[in-house]
Predict the structure.
Amino acid sequence: MAIRSALACLAGLVSAGACLIAFGAQTAAPAVVELLADLRSRGIEILYSTDLVTPQMRVTAPLHGDDPLARAREALAQYGLTLRDVGPHSYLVTRAPPATAPPPPVTVVSPPSAPALDEISVYASRYTFGSGASAEPQVLPNSYIEQVPGGHDDAMRAARLLPGVVSNGSARPYIRGSSLDDVLVQFDGVALAAPYHLKDFQSPVSAFDNAVIDRVDIYSGGYPVRYGTRSGGVIDITPPSVTSGSELSIGASLLSYGVSSVGHAQQWPVDWLVSVRHSSEDVGLRPLNGQVGEPRFTDTLGRLRWYTAVGTWTFGWLLLDDRAAYSIRSGDETAAARYRDDYGWLAYESDFGEQLHSRTVVALTDRQRQRGGTLLIGDFGAGSLHEESRSTRVELRSEWSWRPLPRFALDYGIEATQADAHLQYARVERFEDAVAAAFGRPANNSGATQIVPEAQTYALWSDVRRRWERLEVELGMRLDGQHFADFSARGELSPRLNLRYDVGPEWRVYGSWGHFTQAQRVEEWRVETPQLTPDVPELAVQSVLGVAYQPSPLTRLGLEVYRKHWSHVSPYFDNSLERLSLLPDLVPDRLLVVPTAALANGIEVSARRTLSQHLQGWASYAWSQVADRFANRSVPRSWDQPQAWEGGLSWTQGRGSAAAVFGWHSGWPRTPFTFVPGTEAAPPVLTLGARNSSRWSDYFTADLRTGWDVPLAHSDLSTWVSLTNTTGRHNACCVQFLAPQSGGGVAVTQQNSWFPRVLNLGFTWRVSTRP
């Protein structure tokens, strides 16, 4: 409680102070780094050292270039710098030759000991050499996310448009066959555990709206060793920042309303990001068919950075508070839940000359959860449950990057955590004999569990990268260890290799191979069964081979082939029939899946093209399969989709914009069953077929978004309308159990579907003092 109260109090003080600073900031000349950031948003990678291009550098003379690249060259030339071509659409900021380099303005003071270099290395957040790293992350900039239907209120919605990312309505994605818990989410370099609202109710909204994101890097495979702890994929979120002026935004929609501010103080070496958001009264989150209650959620996120002569201090926080009360089928199923997630972190960054950079973070996490409800299925079964849990975590992470040579890099780091949890679970439940026999569950399914796991973990990692004229090689090794209280310590080695070869200016081939391990977190211990010993860490061996064709920043074609093999798989819960239940652990089709191994493979094709000055288009196709392996058979995972297609168009002209997104995929697996109603002479019989041996019908959605910007005096107003599942298609997903009908009715289930048509509209009013 002390940690949560302190974080909330400090976040409130910082939020209030940041808003005051925002209104008091003054307009300054454009910063050079802002021009470089603009180039990155256009698909041109700019690499530079923060010692060479500092946040204090501003444009000192008018710029006359016709395009952003020419204007950036002019701004850099004012400081004796230039852009050197180092790859396809990639440039390195270096010192200009002495004969042509004008002296820097007197307002900029360079360290007297800094030697003049022909070229320098990069201390950027992505630590990459070129426009496509050897691991080839897929980058979603803010400008792209804003155009995606649903992306304004929830930036994570844009991820579903990428090949290999699977989602139906939920903000949480499956990545290349991995489960939801296998995906690492980072914000500002800090790992977050499930930063989503309404976690037990399909997690329909993430903690990030468009105002708190600069870009999202998504690794679906082959990611570097600095990303540890999860084996399925990485979602790395970079918050926005500015080097001059400020911006205050007030927005509202049918989903939520809130205020945010980002800026850099003119009088002090401080910049900030603050956002507070609350769900609307008539929030349209309906994860199930039927009558449901109205959930409530609040989140506040912020970051305060203080620049000193020797380094940068960062204080950040993310606080989530959710309440939900649902009921369906006239009270046959009711559920209520309360969630509270508090994250706070303190980071220190420093440069030791132009070759060595470090970042050290201490992060605190406090998560609380309360959940309860009742389920009544006529004479078939009835039950109730109550669950409470609390987990805390303290993490220390230190990363170092050394660039002794222009084309050689060494990254290394250490991690250590202390975590504990207190998990309580109680269930009272009975099933009718025929139902219990059909699903292999006891007629009396009551039980109570209390688990108090505690764990210490550590990690050491390092990777070496070498760049030749056309070839880039990254070799990494990671050591992870865990020690759960009352159990023996254990450790895992994870070697990884990433390669990239530039065939020519437009073509590149890349590949990766590596081990990816995932130890169980203390809050992930299963209380339903209950779990008595920690799981053996998952081990996934991933291989990726890809080719990319990019003749210009306006066009990119890509092809990837991947294979992911799990030799160790943690058991997980699944529901054979009713996958959208409010209380999935009370439904009779609940089962614990215990595979001996698993395999996912697939082929992904993607294309992006700027068709004209105002029109852009993109499309992707994926063929894939993922299955759990048991002693004598393989069973598709419940989110397996053999074929998927996504495509869209976005249009902008003047003050208007519009986007259309279309998605289709083959139906997810389902379990067939038959029901024979009872008679006076015989009881009812429910018979299940082989698990996931059939499929639902194909899924299709068409989503639209339009927007209009209105300039006002000293501010601007943006309005937008978003419509998801425009056609109102009923995409079948699962079934709902019904109470047996009197009079001999044969229906014991009815078909359920994913989210219906949803309309959302809103506005954002921005007051800006940015140049």
User: Anything to note?
Assistant: The CA atoms of residues 295 and 324 lie 4 Å apart.
